[in-house]
Design the sequence.
């Protein structure tokens, strides 16, 4: 019988080491509060599937709701969590409980979460600073004020009330930006599972069309979900995009019921979450397994842009370098293929400077990836302690003022996506053969000592390889 809510391979020392690093960063006489996420009602008495808070999980590995971590600058950790309750556990499942928590989580003390309001003021007494994540938990600021009020009410007994509050996100975001070996291994595995899901969706599409079946986007979505779950992923890391034909030009399209037609491309942007870590993969493939020549021309352009972004992803490069590398290739290709008219938009340099490529490529090439799909971590070098000297430029399209800041320097252990794309809506002056084609190719890259490791290439990007694996699927 299961006696703990922790997974069998749970390694408490990973989280203890992170808490020790955090404690060292807080400064003397400081204390950090990290609540987990609330449960959220979906409708009537059904809740959304519970997902822990990423900061809380990063420091505890604990996935139960109704919990809060308190870490002081000596590294002393107290957990407030749900008490054991045989009646509730019949309905909702096992709880670790405050009695078992210290030994199993390698923490110093644990209490019933119901005692938070009475015990927390005691833990805040005689501290100088209190740290907690700002603007991430509804009502937390008010709770902290209430707890501090209780401390202040006891100053006549000689206790001291913390006089400073700091945003814990700044410290934890920087820690989370660099993935340790355990995190990298989990992310590799998450990406491998997602890659197989993508292959299965591609193969199902070809097979069903060949058999004359009515293929819908949800058939392909089901294939992804099936693979994610059968390999132990808890859920998709974000709402899967399965977009057939023109739907691929809607950037945040969701998997729906639209028909997947022979001759169309399908864009799938889907990745599983495994043990708290996201993967994020996009592939675009011909529904029937054969690219038409206009589709292939655009596909090869996006692939070349992605290759340029991969080559630019290495330690010492800037976060913006992969984007700039991709944009240059895409812009050149747009001029070459006639998506942009040289006579109207000018030279390659003009296209880049005036952002004329934006008509067909309107998002960035990368974001950090980690526990959150758009993971935390600063994209600029400056920090609140070391502000940059900013200059201001005007955006050529919107006219808005943009503060230039030094882009983040890539270092080993950072994980980012590389996801250029091209989206062609029906537009006068654009060759009709490209209308309604949307293509994105997205991989997950771990920056290493010499460049980067693409952990999501278990599903190919080469168009010949995609055609080959889709041919295999056809009986
Ligand atoms: N799937 C979300 C993204 O690619 O950013
Ligand atoms: Mn992405
Ligand atoms: Mn994506």
Sequence:
């Amino acid at each position: 019988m299961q006696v703990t809510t922790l997974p069998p391979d749970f390694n408490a020392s990973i989280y203890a080491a992170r808490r020790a690093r955090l404690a060292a960063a807080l400064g003397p006489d400081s204390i950090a509060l990290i609540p987990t996420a609330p449960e959220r009602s979906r409708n009537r008495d059904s809740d959304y599937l519970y997902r822990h808070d990423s900061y809380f999980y990063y420091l505890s590995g604990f996935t139960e709701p109704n919990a809060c971590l308190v870490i002081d600058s000596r590294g002393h950790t107290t957990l407030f969590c749900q008490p054991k309750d045989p009646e509730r556990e019949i309905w909702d499942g096992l709880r670790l409980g405050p009695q078992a928590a210290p030994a199993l989580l390698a923490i110093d003390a644990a209490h019933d979460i119901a005692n938070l309001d009475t015990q927390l003021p005691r833990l805040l007494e005689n501290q100088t600073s209190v740290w907690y994540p700002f603007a991430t938990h509804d009502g937390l600021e008010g709770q902290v004020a209430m707890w501090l009020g209780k401390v202040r009410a006891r100053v006549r007994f000689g206790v001291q009330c913390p006089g400073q509050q700091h945003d814990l996100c700044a410290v934890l975001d920087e820690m989370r930006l660099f993935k340790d070996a355990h995190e990298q291994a989990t992310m590799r595995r998450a990406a491998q599972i997602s890659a197989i899901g993508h292959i299965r969706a591609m193969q199902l599409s070809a097979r069903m069309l060949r058999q004359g079946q009515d293929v819908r986007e949800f058939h392909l979505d089901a294939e992804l979900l099936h693979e994610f779950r059968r390999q132990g992923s808890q859920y998709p890391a974000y709402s899967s995009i399965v977009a057939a034909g023109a739907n691929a030009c809607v950037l945040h399209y969701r998997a729906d019921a639209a028909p997947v037609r022979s001759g169309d491309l399908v864009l799938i942007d889907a990745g599983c979450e495994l043990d708290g870590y996201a993967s994020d993969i996009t592939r675009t493939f011909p529904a029937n397994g054969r690219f038409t020549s206009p589709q292939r021309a655009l596909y090869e352009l996006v692939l070349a842009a992605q290759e340029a972004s991969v080559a630019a992803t290495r330690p010492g490069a800037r976060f913006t370098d992969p984007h700039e590398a991709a944009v240059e290739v895409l812009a050149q290709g747009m001029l070459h293929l006639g998506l942009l008219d040289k006579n109207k938009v000018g030279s390659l340099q003009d296209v880049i400077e005036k952002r004329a490529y934006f008509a067909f490529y309107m998002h960035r090439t990368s974001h950090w990836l980690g526990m959150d799909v758009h993971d935390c971590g600063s994209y600029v070098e400056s920090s609140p302690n070391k502000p940059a000297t900013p200059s201001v430029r005007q955006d050529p399209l919107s006219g808005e003022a943009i503060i230039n800041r030094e882009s983040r320097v890539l270092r080993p252990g950072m994980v980012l996506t590389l996801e250029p794309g091209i989206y062609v809506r029906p537009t006068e002056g654009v060759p009709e053969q490209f209308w309604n084609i949307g293509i994105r190719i997205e991989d997950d890259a771990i920056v290493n000592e010499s460049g980067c490791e693409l952990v999501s290439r278990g599903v190919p990007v080469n168009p010949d390889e995609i055609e080959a694996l889709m041919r295999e699927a056809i009986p």
User: Anything to note?
Assistant: The chain is about 35% helix and 20% strand.
